[in-house]
Amino acid sequence: MNKQRIFAGILLAVSAMSASAGSLSDQVSAMSESGRRNFTGMLIRQSGANCPAVQRTFFQGKLDKNAVWNVACNSRDNYGIVFYGDDSNTTRVMKCSELKELGAPGCFKKF
Q1: Per the confidence metrics, is the pTM higher than 0.85?
Q2: pLDDT higher at 28 or 16
């Protein structure tokens, strides 16, 4: 299966889930680990960051209404994805070192 089909399938699944489920972060939480790795990897690559393959995902916690997931890539960088608690399912991808700007500890540490 090529990457475009995987991407289209993930988008369709998330779209279908958003009609019946809560926030995008809740939907990510309901995915299998494999599904989370595919979806978060797609988000990171769409942001222009280098993440050839996701090794693992980790739900770090909530900052106000925003959920923070951490992603370990097979590159040198690890990333945080902030899922904003808005109706638009806004996300922000940042390096783990940048999460401190939001008041979060380093990646892969619960808060």
Answers
A1: no
A2: 28
